Amino acid sequence: MSSIPGPRRVGSAEIIHHEGYDETIVSPFVPAIRAVSGARLVFVSGVTGAPVYHDHPHRPEVFDSMPLDIAGQVANAFDHLDLALRAAGAERSDVVNLIRFFTDVDADQDTVNRHQAEWFGGHIPTSSSVQVVRLATDPRLRLEIQAIAAVAGE
User: One Pfam family of this protein, by short name (predicted)?
Assistant: First the structure.
């Protein structure tokens, strides 16, 4: 086990580790991130593999073209996250928190973790993963991701 490193600056945030940190452990999250002074927070609504813009009440046929496999759904969800971040003037490296909602953690978490690691390219945000009975948009959805980003102030 290595010593606890000091905060490491990443964009408008600092990565925080605490006692028990072991740099040899592969993990898709860090324990804490602190936004630095002047950072603007961006809150991204939950994204899924379904179209971002859709009618309410939901019309099931709108979701018939979405992928049913987790690989397709996670790719779409992170594409949708990219669109929201860019529209808000944020980048992937600005993401400080993810909340991941799974309908089947055992079946899907490894695929999501792999895609997430590639998507972030070495950046690791804080995160929580929760298993839910189903997602509100469509019962065929397997994953929803909510994010918070900290963007450098202007």
Answer: Ribonuc_L-PSP
